[in-house]
Amino acid sequence: MKKLLSILLAGAMALSLAACGGTPASTSQPASGSTGASEPASVAEATGGIAKEDIKVGVIHLSDPAEGSGYTYTHDQGIIGMQQNLGLADDQIVRKISVDDTDAAAVETAITECVEEGCNIIFATSWGYMDTCEALAEEFPEVIFSHGTGYKSNGTNFNNYFGRIYQARYLSGIIAGMKTETNKIGYVAAMGQENGEVTSGCNAFAMGVASVNPDAEVYVSVTNSWFDPEGEKQAAERLIAEGCDVIGQHCDTPNPQTAAEEHGVWGVGYNSDMTKDAPGATLTSVMWDWSVYYTKAVQNVIDGTWVAGEKVENYFGDMADGLVTLGEFNADLVTDEMIAKVEEVKAQIISGEWDVFDGATEIMDNEGNAHTLEGADYGSCNWYYENVNVL
User: Fold this and answer.
1) I need a labelling partner for 249 at 20 to 30 A (CA). Which of 2, 59, 179, 188 fits?
2) Half-sphere exposure of 352 (CA within 13 A, CB side)
3) Per residue in 196-208, pLDDT tens?
4) pTM for the whole structure
């Protein structure tokens, strides 16, 4: 193993990571411990490239893509897009679905099965898979582990990937701030203030609200789970009972949007386009196109350009490269004035003229403290913007 790793470090070349439809690839799931597949090509071999027909891609999903909406569905659409872009066969994709990210043993089993089935690169899509990926990357240095969200990497065969989703959240906040009639806007959050990924997105949303409506307040209800369909619905209902008439979210399912529709208020979806789930409520959706990253990452393994010197780069995409986007506007609910304002700010973000967290302006939190924040430093955002309240 040490020899493999030394070859990896010596022979590495530059990494260039850059962001969906069709028929899903194979979802067969061999029994735990299956060893019938061929051994994976090593990362050292990957620095010289792997023939496209020999590449094998594993993906660990938190829930079932068949749900047809939300977090896992969006990641799987990215995998499908990557497969189509690169022309991979169905049997070159190995999916492990509904792997509970709070069950370390289940996570280890799913990832190990991918290794045993010959996967050269494994995408682990949920924050809770991070520590297991870190450990298994050390155990299997011949396999590339690419972890969605989080912050850990080892500089060789384990990186993380995420993006400036706060850019689209700010734009959706503009819509919410212009739409509200009660000046109370709700936000269902998977994690609390301690999680910078969630909190930075909430703050960007709240800043977008404030930019067009300084009288509006944002109310946060936390589920303390990355995937909790019933808890997400209950959190939305608490916010609606508080008087919130627009419901944003950083959680996995469309349940906050369907709750909004049931109660006659509006919402902003997340991950996938949720207007199909709640056409009478969803104004727009903050969305990812994960095929941007998955295509580039797998192509790099094929080309032998995964590694850069002694450091594997993490990936942090944005609206400019297409990883982050805002969904279609609901024509029945969103006015031309709202769209014009969003398009004005969106153009500034994509051109680089301005960004939400540009580090140049002090941002006030809800306790009266001033902060500066660069976009890539979202993990340090453990405070709430001045118009945010926690239920």
Assistant:
1) 59
2) 2
3) 999 999 999 999 9
4) 0.85
